[in-house]
């Protein structure tokens, strides 16, 4: 009888050790990995399509999309008619040593000026002439200048931020005039608030290379802002998936919450290129909402400068939409 009881007790203990929670723990972890942001990043496509207008015409643009059958595609639209921006077959022939799997969206940072295609693939930058047969591609070893990102429409000036202050620079000589001197971590100029996922993915992320500035069509004015974020609440994001060394990465970022009294605010800042000076506008501050830049709203990127009538009197600027 005692032997039977001992056998039943042993089986009971063994059953406790093999509970579903223990047996399935590894499977549940692997299943959870399938739904991480990194895994799902390449499974959601065409959430937004951004037209890239060609500079020499108002009726022609191109955009990137993703097809389940064909993978990454670049479409050119001319007079409402669509066709491929370039031949994927010819591009692969020009990059014979670089295999292109279009299902994996291999091309990044794509730009096109009407004749030449520039992009990066496998962390290498290329310039390709696609108006010839066959295509001619060259490896671009020179990193893109930051000035190219914030260049005026006429190509004569650009702006940059260093030590949280704005400078206006000439594109031909790279000489710069520092416009502000009161910028700090708490009161920077032109900076966006990055997504925390971006901070985790880019360990050397430099916020001063990610600005929100808008040029007027005639390149005479540029508008941005000065941020006020001292005392704004911060959150911490932790990467729950450890690396090979089992270390866990964390980043902190500005994130105001409901009920907070201190919110990030932005005061508009207007640069007059001819006068080589800037002015903080005597206008109500704009609330910076979570991520991105402080200037937002429907069509803000295209109409903030081009569709306003700016009247300047002394130190006051009135903007009428």
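^ structure tokens above, recovered residues below v
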């Amino acid at each position: 009888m005692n032997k039977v009881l001992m056998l039943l007790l042993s089986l009971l203990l063994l059953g406790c050790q093999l509970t579903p929670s223990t047996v399935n723990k590894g499977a549940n972890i692997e299943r959870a990995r399938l739904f991480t942001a990194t895994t799902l990043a390449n499974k959601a496509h065409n959430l937004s399509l951004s037209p890239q207008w060609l500079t020499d015409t108002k009726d022609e643009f191109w955009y990137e999309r993703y097809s389940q059958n064909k993978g990454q595609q670049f479409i050119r639209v001319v007079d409402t008619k669509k066709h491929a921006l370039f031949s994927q077959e010819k591009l692969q022939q020009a990059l014979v040593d670089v295999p292109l799997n279009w299902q994996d969206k291999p091309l990044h940072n794509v730009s096109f000026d009407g004749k030449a295609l520039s992009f990066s693939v496998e962390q290498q930058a290329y310039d390709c002439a696609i108006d010839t047969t066959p295509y001619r591609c060259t490896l671009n070893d020179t990193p893109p200048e930051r000035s190219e990102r914030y260049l005026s429409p006429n190509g004569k000036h650009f702006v940059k931020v260093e030590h949280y202050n704005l400078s206006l620079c000439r594109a031909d000589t790279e000489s710069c005039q520092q416009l502000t001197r009161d910028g700090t971590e708490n009161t920077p100029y032109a900076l966006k608030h990055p997504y925390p996922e971006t901070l985790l993915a880019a360990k050397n992320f430099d916020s001063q290379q990610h600005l929100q500035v808008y040029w007027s069509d005639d390149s005479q004015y540029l508008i941005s802002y000065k941020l006020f974020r001292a005392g704004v609440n911060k959150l911490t994001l932790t990467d729950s998936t450890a690396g090979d060394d089992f270390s866990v990465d964390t980043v902190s970022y500005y994130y105001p919450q409901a009920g907070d009294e201190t919110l990030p605010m932005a005061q508009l800042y207007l640069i007059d290129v001819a006068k080589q000076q800037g002015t903080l506008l005597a206008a109500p501050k704009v609330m910076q909402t979570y991520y991105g830049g402080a200037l937002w709203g429907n069509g803000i990127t295209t109409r903030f400068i081009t569709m306003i009538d700016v009247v300047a009197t002394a130190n006051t600027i009135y903007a009428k939409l």
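The first helix runs from residue 2 to 17.
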